[in-house]
Amino acid sequence: MSTASGKFKRITTHRLLEMKAAKEPIAMLTAYDYSMARIIDGAGIDILLVGDSASNVMAGNETTLPITLDHMIWHATSVVKAVSRALVVVDIPFGSYQGNSSEALKSSIRIMKESGAHAVKMEGGIEIKESIVRVLSAGIPVMGHLGLTPQSIYKFGTYTVRAKAESEARKLVEDAKLLEEVGCFGIVLEKIPAKLAKEVADSVKIPIIGIGAGPDVDGQVLVMHDLFGITQDFKPRFLRQYADLNKIIGEATQQYIKDVKAKDFPSQEESY
Ligand code: KIV
Predict the structure, then answer these.
(1) 146-190 pLDDT, tens per residue?
(2) Which residue, 83, 108, 161, 244, has fewest beta-carbon neighbours within 10 Å?
(3) Hey, which residues does 187 pair with through a beta bridge?
(4) For this structure, is 190 an active site residue?
């Protein structure tokens, strides 16, 4: 299904609010390059997230911390060129917004100006309120991210489910309300109990997009490489694998090697 003909209406932050109000689930997926973004956008995804998970799945790092603002802009620029329908949201990477609100604004402006993306995402609640407000004041839509926030992995020490303790759960609900109040257009909730995620989704009017947050939220997000079965060693309970591209690509590569070694490729028809 192609969007090149413009038969789809572009997804906007306003449309996402309408979808929540109409109880229409929102589908979000990551993408990091032109070719995959084109396929995923053509299939009708609502939000494409240029996630800092690029640090893991594209660059092979153990955490999201090493990826830089320049790297994120490079990925985002490639994705934006491919997209004609989805809203493109870009993660502001670790170390380019936590310093102060003017650093957050400067980084966000670079992302929007240089990549052509539609919105940015930041991890955290009350601690980064000033930065969120400053970025929003420049007219840049901001998506929040609460629960398991991978940029804080060394503070957590583990990728286990967050907010099981009542005190952390209460803070998370308060943070979600705060993000709505200051003007975020949506929030990603990562790896928290499903009951708590439902409470959050019921207490705000902005869309709550879950990853490992159960079914009672307004939409779901997954990392592209996990959904397509490209990553093989990552099988959390929340992941549903929709394809086995690792197997398909591995077998195709083996066949290609065999054909080259046997001088079966290229054939006369494949030559000039
Ligand atoms: O970077 C990312 O891919 C994310 C998703 C896990 C939501 O933030």
Answers:
(1) 999 999 999 999 999 999 999 999 999 999 999 999 999 999 999
(2) 244
(3) 144, 208
(4) yes
| Length of the chain as a residue count | 272
End-to-end, the C-alpha distance of the chain in Å comes to 33
Catalytic-role residue among 18, 127, 190, 199: 190
- For the four alpha carbons of 32, 104, 108 and 118, in that order, the dihedral sign comes to positive
- CA–CA gap between residue 200 and residue 64 (Å, rounded): 26
Contact yes or no for 214/194 (Cβ under 8 A): yes
Output the six-digit token pair for 152: 């804080």
CA of 263 to the centre of ligand 1 (A): 44
CA 123 → CA 51, 61, 244, distances in Å? 11, 19, 31
From 142, 223, 225, 238, give the residue whose CB has the most ligand 1 atoms within 8 Å, as the site to mutate: 223
Residue range 232-248, pLDDT digits in tens:
889 999 999 999 999 99
Q: How far apart are CA 196 and CA 207, in angstroms?
A: 15
Q: Any idea what DSSP says for residue 51? A: -
Cα of 163 to ligand 1 centre, how many Å?
Answer: 18
Give me Rg for the CA atoms of the chain.
20
Rounded Cα gap, residues 204 and 120, in angstroms: 20
Name the β-bridge partners of 28.
47, 221
What CA–CA distance (Å, rounded) separates 36 from 40?
6
Predicted confidence (pLDDT) at residue 8 exceeds the cutoff of 90: no
